[in-house]
Amino acid sequence: MSSFGGKSGEAAGPKGRRASRLRQQDRDVQLSKALSYTLRHGALKLGLPMGADGFVPLHSLLRLPQFHSFSAEDVQRVVDTNEKQRFTLKPGDPSAGPLIRANQGHSLQVPDLELVPLETPQALPRMLVHGTFWKHWPFILLKGLSCQGRTHIHLAPGLPGDPGVISGMRPNCEVAVFINGPLALADGIPFFRSANGVILTPGDADGFLLPKYFKEALQLSPARKPLSLAGDKETECPSGPKHSPRGRTIKQ
């Protein structure tokens, strides 16, 4: 009997640990999404004191109802293990305690986000790429890339999977748009590098990077192949109907 019980415990052990890991991963994803929304978009609406550099006191954040089931240790783990390095956690003064911020992606105005200006063509990465999806491509081809309510357009210094590309583009993007950075820079459009290596630009006065700054475009999925930048031609989605850039406006 004892031997049978021992074997049953051994069999259940790995399954129990695996289930515990999955639950932990689910909680970490939930926490990461809550942090992203709060630190990028919702801090002021939620009554959090945010500095000009985007940092908020961790103890104030953890008092919000959506964070009641999480601890400072949970936040530290999510910050440390986030592959895209979305957040920075640093010690504050003794009265405030630790401070946390999102490194980029804000719709809130954060004037001192410690972005590094890229002021010459030589300072720009050799490659500047924006990743998007087929449903947005007709609008982008006609109107350009938009901030879409955020303070910056996000660019990556390479394609998903390239060395050093940890953020700035979702890994499941279907279309890559390559930007002529030096041309945009010559027209007065600024570029910056965030703490986690994302290249950011506010675009022009209307928050756009116009199609004239597109060097080329590449279909990433289902297979990689060049795309036409001719705005007067139909753009074909490989997995669905054709979309004309002269049709209805589609948000990115």
UniProtKB/TrEMBL annotation:
Catalytic activity of the protein: 2'-phospho-[ligated tRNA] + NAD(+) = mature tRNA + ADP-alpha-D-ribose 1'',2''-cyclic phosphate + nicotinamide
Region (Disordered): 1-27, 225-252
Record-listed E.C. numbers: 2.7.1.160
Gene Ontology BP, a term: tRNA splicing, via endonucleolytic cleavage and ligation
Gene Ontology MF term list: tRNA 2'-phosphotransferase activity
Pfam families, alphabetized: PTS_2-RNA
Compositionally biased tracts (Basic residues): 243-252
Keywords (A to Z) from UniProt: NAD, Transferase
PANTHER family listed in its UniProt record: PUTATIVE PHOSPHOTRANSFERASE, TRNA 2'-PHOSPHOTRANSFERASE 1
Role: Catalyzes the last step of tRNA splicing, the transfer of the splice junction 2'-phosphate from ligated tRNA to NAD to produce ADP-ribose 1''-2'' cyclic phosphate.
Record family assignment: Belongs to the KptA/TPT1 family.
UniProt protein name: 2'-phosphotransferase
Biological classification of the source: Eukaryota, Metazoa, Chordata, Craniata, Vertebrata
